[in-house]
Amino acid sequence: MLPSTLAADSSNPRSRSRGTLLIALAVQFAVLLVSVFVMVREDVVVEPPVFSGERVVVAEKSSVKRLERTRELDRRMAKPRSFQALAVEDAFQSELPALPRLPESSSDFEGMEESFLAEAQSAMLDSGLMGELSRLGGAVSSTEFFGVKDSGRRIVIVVNTSASVVRKASARGVSIAQLQEEAIGLVDKLESGTLFGIVQFSQGTKGFAEYLAPALVKNKRQAGEWIREELKGNPPVLNPELVGHEAAIAAALELQPDLIFFVTDGSLNRRTSKAGGGYSYPKISYDQLMRFTEKAVFSSGSDPRLHVIGFQLGTEERSGLERWAKRYGGSLREM
């Protein structure tokens, strides 16, 4: 009975279709399981990617050059060289050109009264103009010359080296060499910022420099050499119209000093050419010297103190030089 039943079932089309469907579903389920297993398995074993490569630095050409210069500078500075000690001795030979002079063409000095010149100079002093001009350059130095003490920024030494002065100085125990050393000593003791000048005269004049020189080491040394070699004898007359004490004070005031030391024997004379040849030496008065100085001071715009060192002075010379020195705030030292 059983075989017959199976035979009956197999012959039934609906039974065959149902069996085929079940087999297909079973196969698909099996494939799905396998796929899930494979996917999970692959996800577990896969590692994240690793990126690698050589490091490359890109720099601009200018930056590289600057870096090279910096390295070279560091290399040189690692072992500093020894430098020679600096000395303030050769900065410059002289100061800037002198201040412009006041025009003379518009002023008739010969026609002016002495009182007018004195009032004009007094007005300039009251205005402070002369004082400001004298302070434009130089540092203050305290000085001493043949026992006369003072201080100034712009100092000029004026020395009469005529035969009469040398003779009278020698009679007072001061040789020309000692006179030279006195001048050298004054210059040597000046501060480096102080300006100085030297004027030699007899009838003609000669100067150490065209302008005031700063008291630097080299300038002091050159001044000492110049004094020993040149500060003696009679310098040539370059301007026949301007000689003697007048030429000397004019040359000194051209330098626009605020302090002057003036060495002389007080003999005022002016060399004059004779008609038939040769020279005569007529005297001039101290009034003439005072008037000439007034005009020169007014023209130069300077405001100096004037100290006079006189050798073997007579009564007239003593009185005249003392009046001259006091007129400009200075003093007379008689040797």
Automatic annotation (TrEMBL):
Keyword field: Membrane, Transmembrane, Transmembrane helix
**Which residues are listed as membrane-spanning?**
21-40
Show the InterPro entries listed in the entry: vWFA_dom_sf
Recorded protein name is VWFA domain-containing protein
The organism named in the record is: Pelagicoccus albus
